[in-house]
Amino acid sequence: MGVMIGGVYHVEDPGPDTVEGGEFRRAEATIRHRITRDGSSGFPAEVGRYHLYAAWNCPWAHRALLMRVEKGLEDAVSVAHARPRRTEAGWVFDAEGAYSDPALGVAALHEVYAREAAPYTGRVTVPLLWDKVAGRAVSNESAEIVRMLNDAFPGPDLAPPELLDEIEGWNARIHRDLNNGVYRAGFARTQEAYDRAVADVFATLDAVEAALADRPFLCGDRYTEADLRLFPTLARFDVAYHYAFKCNIRRLVDYPRLWDYARRIHRRPGVAATVDFDIYKRGYFSPSALRNPLGIVPAGPEIDWNTGSAGEAGGAGPLGT
Question: Which of 50, 113, 183, 223 is catalytic?
Fold first, then answer.
């Protein structure tokens, strides 16, 4: 994906971030300002002021897109979707159409990062939240973008104070062992690193399946930020991670409660419009010297996310609303 050094983009891809023992470690985001209701942060919660750079196949960007939908911010926060596959220029945009940038009209995302006053060094990643008025980036940390959109703008509160401790507990485990765990498995450079990662992935899926035995959502009867942050991984699991990242002990559809839960979230207003299973599959099976050198995209699996009654496609309980 290339890298920025001192505000200058370099095409050379440094490859997965791995440490001793062959384990994948994700680089931390470094642009971490906040939008606040009162504007005390320098970034006031103003309708039409912010622009979100995203990509369909990125689960971290998917988080931000989901919060934008849940808060009803589709008209308040504009979006640019990068082309589904990166090039040597990284995430790129067309001059017009579905993959163009209506805010700045850039050809590549690194051009936006280059506009930062302080020369940026790091990965050129989505999501990136941009302040169109100030002409500067707000944040490229997905978890913080999700929380600030929730806290700064009116609408349903997905991180209510009375559930915050439980939400944070789920967030920490799911991020470490599942959201990032599938990448730890897929990018592992040793058998031992892979074994540790894949064990974490399925231990966490098992824990979620158990938790859903007596509740419709992770924290009870209410859909929260924890559910929102879990969903992008579930949406990609059977079409991508199960095969491309060797997370193949079980499929999502093999978990009765979890499969019902995932489809229930998929049916929430606006959520299905943030999902594209074909793009996920083509993206994760794109040419990779380590994982898929020939770039062949498999035909399957055929999975129907629109089934709704108990017992269908592995479902074992009422889907609810």
Answer: 183
- Is the domain spanning 3-152 CATH 2.40.320.10? The answer is no
Cα separation values, 63 from 143, 230, 265, 307, Å: 8, 9, 13, 24
Does the pTM surpass 0.90? The reply is yes
End-to-end alpha carbon distance in the chain: 39
Q: Has domain 161-314 been given CATH number 1.20.1260.10?
A: no
In the chain, residues under CATH classification 3.40.30.10 are 3-152
As annotated, the residues of the chain forming the CATH 1.20.1050.10 domain(s) are 161-314
Question: Which stretches within 71-223 are classed as H helix?
Answer: 109-113, 142-152, 164-174, 181-186, 191-211
Query: Tokens 């302040």, residue?
Result: 131
pLDDT tens, the chain, 321 aa long: 689 999 999 997 666 676 667 776 777 788 999 999 999 999 999 999 999 999 999 999 999 999 999 999 999 999 999 999 899 999 999 999 999 999 999 999 999 999 999 999 999 999 999 999 999 999 999 999 999 999 999 999 999 999 999 999 999 999 999 999 999 999 999 999 999 999 999 999 999 999 999 999 999 999 999 999 999 999 999 999 999 999 999 999 999 999 999 999 999 999 999 999 999 999 999 988 888 899 999 999 999 999 763 333 333 333 333
Tell which phi-psi region holds residue 13, choosing left (phi > 0), alpha (psi between -120 and 50) or beta: beta
CB 45 within 8 A of CB 36: yes
Is-catalytic flag, 58?
yes
Active-site hit among 58, 113, 219, 243 = 58
Is 284 one of the annotated active-site residues of the chain?
A: no
